[in-house]
User: What shape does this take?
Amino acid sequence: MIDDETRYRAVDSRDARFDGVFFTAVRTTGIYCRPSCPAVTPKQSNCTFYPSAAAAQGAGYRACRRCRPDSVPGSPEWNHRADVVGRAVRLIGDGVVDREGVAGLADRLGYSARQLQRQLTAELGAGPLALARAQRAQTARLLLQTTPLPVTEIAFAAGFASVRQFNDTVREVYDRTPSGLRAEGAPGRRTAVPPATPGTIALRLAYRGALDSAHLLDFLALRAVPGVEEVVPGDRPGVRTYRRTLALPYGHAVAEIDGLATADAPTRGWLDCRLALTDLRDLTTAVHRLRALLDLDADPDAVDEQLGRDGALGPAVLARPGVRSPGHVDPHELAVRAVLGQQITVAAARTLAGRLAERYGAALPAPGGGLHLLFPTPAALAEAEDGDLAMPDARRRALRGLCAVLADGTLRLDPGADREQAAADLLALPGIGPWTVGYLRMRALADPDVFLPGDAGVRHGLQRLGRPGDPASADTAARAWAPWRSYAVHRLWLAAALPAGPPVVPPAVPPAVLSVASSAVDGGPGPAARTAAARTRATRRNSPEATV
Assistant: This one.
C-alpha cells in the first residue's frame, strides 16, 4: 500500500516503475496521466490519484495525449492476486465481459453481479462495465491508428454494441472524434512502429523495468511444438522472433514477437509485435494472452530486490536482471503438454506434442513459415487412438482423463480460475502429481510463488550454486524467496544450464549494492535486482501511440 505523498514523489521524479499501478488526474487540466509523464509536474494540491484508468475516466478526466496512460503495462497487483478482484481483472482483460456480459463474468467467479460490482468499485474505483469500456477504448484507438479499416468495422471489432456508443466513448476518453484520433496516428506523426504486411496489425507490448528477453526466447524455443510455434532469426541483426498460432474465441491468429537485440537496453520498455487475426474481435484477447505468456505485467524491481538479497541468487540477479516467469496463451494446451512431459526429457515431450498436433490439430488455411497448425483441443485428444499416444498406459489414462475434464468444463484453468480449487481438482485426477500441479500453477494460473523442490532442474541449479539439492534442503532455502519463488525456479533452471564443472561459488553481494536494491513425479522435466544503473526513461516518455 502506498499513500498520496509517495504517489506524488513518484510523479515528481517521473518514476516509470509506477506506470499502471496508479494514475494521476489533474483538476486544472481535466486530464489523467501515467506517473512517468514528461509534462510539467502539477502542484500536489491539484492532483487526484486513481487505481485504474477506468476510475479516472469515470470521474470525467480524459487521457493525456502525450504519455498515453491507457497503454501502460497492467498493475502487477492484479496480475498476481488470487482473490476475486484479481481473478475478475484477468477475465475482463481476456474479453469475458465483451463476450458474456457482466452476468457471465459473475457466474465464472461464483458471485452475484451486485457483489462483484461492489468489490471492484471498492478496490479499482470502477465496476466491470467501466473497466471493459476503458479496454474497448484502448482497442479502438489501436485499430484506428494502425489499420485502414472503416470506422464502423472498428467499432464492432473493439467490442462496442453500436457506432453511437463507440463515437461517444472515444470523444469522452480521448477528447477527439474517431477521425481526429486516426489523424493523430497518421504516418507523418506516428513514430517507430515497424510496418506490417497487409492484414496484420503492428503494435508494441509495453513492460516495466528490465526484461531479459533472451531468457524468454530460449525458454520458449526449447519447448516449441513443431508446426505450432517457432523461434526464428528476426529481420534485424541480433534479433530473434517468436512466432506461434493462437486459437481464439472468434477465430485464430498468428503472432510474431521480436526479442531485443543484444545492443538494446533491457529497459527499452516495449517489444515489437505483429498479429494476423482472422477476426478483429479477438484483438484484445490475443494481446492479453501474449502479455501473460511473456509475463509483461510483472514488477521485476520487486522480484529482483527480494531474490537479490540471497547469497546464492544475488550475483545472478545483479548480472542478469529482469528474468520473467513465462505463462501461456492456452492453459489447456499447457496442461496437455505437462502430462506429455512427465518422466521424459523436454525434447522428447516436444517431439510427442508435435506428432499429436500433426495428427489431431486443425490446419491453418494459409500456412506461413514453419507454422501450419493449431494445437489440438482437449476434446480431440480425449478420443486419440492408442497408437498415437506413444507413452506408458498409466500416463495415457492420465492424459485422457485430463482432456475429458477440460473438455466438459469440470476443470477450469482460465485466467479467473481459483488456484486452490484448480490444484485440488488436478490432484484428484489419476496420474497427476505435485510437480504437474505446481508447474501448471506457475505457468497456466500465473502464481508467482510456486516452488518445485523435487524438480531435476531445481536440484541441479542449487548444486551448481553450491547449495544442497535434496527436496528438504531446497524447500527450506526457498522460504527466503517468497513471494517470488516461481521466479527463483527460473533462476535455478538457468543455473542448471551452466557448463559442467565445479560448483559456482557466488561472491558476496556488497552491502552497498543491497542497500541500493532495497531503497525505494511426478519427476517432471528438468530443463537444463533490480540493478543500480540509471533507468533509460527517455524511451518510455516517447512510448509510441500503438503500445498496449
User: Anything to note?
Assistant: The longest strand covers residues 240-247. The chain has a mean pLDDT of 86.
